[in-house]
Amino acid sequence: MSESPSASPTAASVAGRVVGSALGTARAGAGAARRAIKRNPTADKAYRAAVGVTGGATVALGVALIPLPGPGSLVALGGLAMLGTEFEGARKVNKKATAVAKKAVGKMAERRAARTRGEQTG
Predict the structure, then answer these.
(1) Which of 25, 28, 30, 97 has the most crowded CB, counting CB atoms within 10 A?
(2) Nearest-angstrom CA–CA distance, 70 and 63
């Protein structure tokens, strides 16, 4: 739904602009903070350690949740994404794991569509 130039903005469109602006400001601030941390070797080591512990714990939690009903694999991918912000190896693993997950989702969607059409899947 698009707004006409003469129509007053809806509450949703105003809220969307405010949230978008806030996210942009937060990203810029986070980037500046990260650059400042990188200039201090001690702070950089502490930051990377904190990211490693937090990301590693999130991956471990996600792996533990995989056999249970719920989004365990998504939690694990989120932890890999956290680790990937600071560690190149984790970034590469996350890229591969995300590609595999997207491929699996695509295959499941194909099977679901075939099932609704009444075709046999194998």
Answers:
(1) 97
(2) 12
What mean pLDDT value characterizes the chain?
84
What are the distances in angstroms from CA 30 to CA 26, 36, 106, 119?
Answer: 6, 10, 34, 50
Long-range contacts at 68-77 (CB < 8 A, ≥ 24 apart) = 73/101, 77/101
On whether residue 61 sits in a domain, the answer given is yes
Cβ atoms of 80 and 61 closer than 8 Å: no
Convert the pLDDT of each residue in 76-93 to its tens digit.
989 999 999 899 998 899
Residue 2 lies in a domain: no
What's the mean pLDDT in 45-50? 93
Alpha helices in the chain (DSSP H): 11-39, 41-65, 72-84, 88-117
The pLDDT of residue 1:
47
In a domain, 15, yes or no: no
Distance of alpha carbon 52 from alpha carbon 80, whole angstroms: 10
Residue 102 lies in a domain: yes
